[in-house]
User: Fold these one by one.
Assistant:
Number 1:
Amino acid sequence: MDSSRGQNGIQLLLAAEQEAQHIVNASRNAKLARLKQAKEEAEKDIAAFRAHVEAEFQRKVAESSGDSGANVKRLEVETNTKIDHLQTEAARISHDVVNMLLKHVTSVKN
């Protein structure tokens, strides 16, 4: 009797070990599947973020290149305005400057 009980116990232990091995393998496979799914989702998120950043960059490049023409035009107008102002001021005070220079050049000091 003891030997049949021992055989029966060994059979139960072997069956429990096989069941445990199946559970471990199933858990391992589920873990690998979850990791693969997480990796795929992360890659999708990265691709979406990269596309968003690239679109934002292209938008800014388009704005800055479109703006550069307007900036150049604005700077040309500002520069021409300043040149006109300087020429007007020079014409206004040139007679006085010439007289002052002549006075200092022609006067002799000891």
Number 2:
Amino acid sequence: MTYRQEEITPYGNDGTKGEQVERMFDGIAHSYDLLNHTLSFGIDKHWRKAAIKSLTPHAPKHILDVATGTGDFAMLAARELHPESILGIDLSDGMLQVGREKTARAGLEKTIRFQKEDCLRLSLSDNAFDAVMVAYGIRNFEDLDRGLSEMCRVMKPGGRLVIIELTAPRRFPMKQLFRLYSHVLMPALGRLISRDNKAYAYLPATMEAFPQGEEMQQILSRAGFKEVRFKRYTFGLSTLYTATK
């Protein structure tokens, strides 16, 4: 099945979506953290903590962080969950390099390692991880069904899935306020800080197109997960999905 956000690309028809997403994140890697926290007014840190807290009762020892970016989610998981190992994977070498530098400064390089991977074709073994998590990256997948199936494959039976993703509010007045913010302020700030004229127009467009709530619940169930639940935060600006293999 094809979902609307899979057809949205940062740079038009200039390569596949995966190639364009890789190029985009390579280009904004060194301004990504600043933009993330600025554009969300710092609320993204609260959303990440809520996602990690959902894993606490399960005490995962080996964690896969998909679309790890600069490693913020992996570092938070290392500090809060104290696992034996976390593998952060991403398409973008630029983002991974920033992640390695941050992890080294934090003294977490023995717990967290980074590896370049295409989430649609993971080179990882079956049933290898107690938990798989994704923060604000799943809407960039070129093939959502295939990516979720791969995540399910590498997870141990009984393992936990955690996805936290930005979503577009659907109720008045937040729906209207979000459209104004995402189509005017977000691209303007993105251009100012990252100097990429298109990246921060692409990102809100994928937020609006990405399946959410009950629709995403059904997609996760079809991918092989059970006990799929979701919870919305901050008037629907972010949604947490949890599930079990």
Number 3:
Amino acid sequence: MKIAPLADVKAQLSAYVEQAQTEGPIVITRNGKAVAVLIAPTDDEDLENLLLARSPRLQAILTQSRQSIQAGKGLTADAFWNAVKDHSEKPES
């Protein structure tokens, strides 16, 4: 992993993109503090995973789900898979 100041990355973005593809993530700093990471996805699925991992909406859903489970309102594994099966067997309207 490489660390580079923002000014350098701005001046040589193409070179840093190439390095991210071949050498791995680059931490971008401003005034010595990390402000961004340049990551080259390996494929479309990797890109989707990276984007979802940072999605505020998905994080809110996961937080709500965890709280629900902790409050005893979650489904058992069997109940979950039965609900999935029931949903997949219903004809679409």
